[in-house]
Design brief:
310 residues, mainly alpha, two-stranded antiparallel ribbon, 13 helices
Length: 310
């Protein structure tokens, strides 16, 4: 009689990873996140051009060129120009009291104004870099004293470029700096709120729709985490009561999730996946000694690859 494979904390953690990967990749919120990003990317290019057109209507290029020439000649006394990616637009409306009023919309093409959007947009890349883009939802306001919250916040902010250290490779362009490239020259100071560009109602609504599309990226990211985490909470409770692997295997079979006991054995998982052409080439290359964190990240990736094969 075959001996039943007993579970421990480490093996339960490996099993959790298989379930989590399945639920993350196979739900409407992951699809919704990808669709929201694609829609945002497509619309962003058009909105940048629309902003430029509106601003040049209010501030013709010849005026910008004149002020630049005056600034070069007289310094600050010649006028002010600012290369900006943050803009405010206004339109005339009739308010709830039936009076003439104005409504404003804020359009921003940078990452720095919304870290939550940045983590949502770069969710997959952050996870591959061993950062947790869901840390804020995982450890909410009530648990900010948890050191893990600040650890993950620092890792995400550093990868995105909101923080930096002296020993970083300065040749690597981080997302924050990459997004900073999309700018428009405006006449005025660096204070976005001091510049209001008037637009018609149609243009105003287009800018509002663009902001909604951007918000949808963050919304889908949030819903994805909530969906998966709700299932994981129930799974963790169940796994705690399981003593043997075949119990978890039966649960996975009932849910249509591929679960093989090889994922519990790192060496067997490595043996099955490490000799793919890509992985073998990587091992044979002369490289600088990897850090402990890099080795852990690679091991996790190989386990995920094996799980997907099974």
């Amino acid at each position: 009689m075959t001996k039943r494979l007993t579970l421990n904390a480490e093996k339960r953690k490996s099993i959790e990873g298989v379930f989590q990967s399945h639920w993350t990749d196979n739900n409407k919120f992951m699809s919704g996140l990808q669709e929201a990003k694609e829609k945002y990317n497509s619309m962003r290019v058009k909105m940048l051009q629309l902003c430029s057109n509106v601003i040049r209507q209010h501030q013709p290029q010849q005026d910008v060129d004149t002020i630049r020439a005056m600034s070069n000649k007289y310094g600050d006394s010649g006028g002010q120009l600012y290369h900006d990616n943050c803009f405010r637009f206004e339109t005339d409306i009739i308010n709830d009291e039936g009076e003439r009023d104005k409504d404003t919309v804020h359009v921003n093409f940078s990452l720095d104004d919304d870290h939550e959007f940045a983590r949502a947009y770069y969710r997959d890349e952050l996870m591959k870099a061993n950062c947790d883009p869901d840390y804020k939802a995982r450890w909410n306001e009530d648990s900010k004293r948890n050191p893990k919250y600040y650890e993950e916040e620092n890792k995400c902010d550093t990868w995105l470029g909101f923080r930096s250290s002296s020993n970083e490779d300065k040749s690597i362009i981080k997302p924050k700096a990459e997004w900073e490239r999309d700018k428009i020259w405006v006449i005025g100071t660096s204070y976005c709120h001091t510049r209001q560009f008037k637009v018609d109602e149609t243009t105003f609504k287009i800018f509002q729709e663009f902001n909604k599309v951007r918000d949808d990226v963050s919304l889908m990211h949030s819903k994805l985490f909530e969906y998966v985490e709700e299932k994981m909470k129930k799974l963790r409770l169940g796994l705690k009561s399981y003593r043997f692997f075949d119990q978890a295997k039966k649960l996975a079979d009932n849910l249509g999730i591929a679960l093989n006991e090889s994922i519990l054995n790192e060496s067997s998982s490595m043996a099955l996946s490490v000799y793919s052409p890509e992985n073998l080439a990587s091992l044979l290359e002369d490289k600088v000694e990897q850090t402990r964190e890099e080795k852990i990240a690679i091991a996790k990736r190989l386990l995920q690859e094996q799980a997907s094969i099974n």
